[in-house]
Amino acid sequence: MSNQRELWDREAAQSYDTPGEGMFSPGVIGPTVEVLTQLAAGGPAVEFAIGTGRIAIPLADAGVAVSGIELSHAMIARLREKVEEGRIPVVQGDMAEALAGTGFSLAFLAFNTIANLLTQDDQVRCFQNAARHLAPGGRFVVELWVPQLRSLPPGHGATVEISEPGYLLIDTYDVVQQHVISHHVRFGPELSDGGAARIGRTPHRYVWPAELDLMARLAGFVRESRWADWDRSPFTDQSRSHVTVYRLGAD
């Protein structure tokens, strides 16, 4: 996991937040917090890969007692600029093994972060760690994208996911290892270096929905719901992402 720790350094943490825009927009955060508040059902919640508090802070504002696990010291430091430890306690460590407590009603992973674990074994251990945190009957929620392998042209190993003024997102695939590297290309005169392009890369291991369900079963969960988004819209064969709710068995 050291490469992930190095990836989410101070520069990444300081540039991560985009208040009011993108994944920080009210239209994204509002439905997410609403669903998680309902699923917590008055009990405490723990966020794996809490980051800078994009979801945890508004969830705490909604009255949910929130704790977190985060690998990156820099992301935790950025979170601490916004909220004190006493309000949202965070354990620094790997979300596949670090323990933030037990007896939680809800554990959750938002915005594809389970894919930051680059092996199937680590992803399975993440489910097992979620089970350790939860009270019997507690829920584990995972938000994740659906691999877009149907978009790969024959003989090519990359897709253009986003193309807009000043930004390109290109994903390159290793279909044997189920690895994706996202190449974030930013360019334009607004950049501080006069417009030269900047490239950032983030590695992921993609997971099919059925594979995710099997990981959950191995950890003692049963699938309760799957939606295409936080608005609870139906999940179909055309959905590009999903929000899946798992419930921990009584045993």
UniProtKB/TrEMBL annotation:
Region feature Disordered, mapped onto this chain: 1-21
Domain Methyltransferase: 46-138
Ranges of biased composition (kind: Basic and acidic residues): 1-12
BP GO annotations: methylation
Keywords attached to this entry: Methyltransferase, Transferase
InterPro entries: Methyltransf_25, SAM-dependent_MTases_sf
Gene3D superfamilies associated with the record: Vaccinia Virus protein VP39
Protein name (record): Class I SAM-dependent methyltransferase
UniProt source species: Arthrobacter citreus
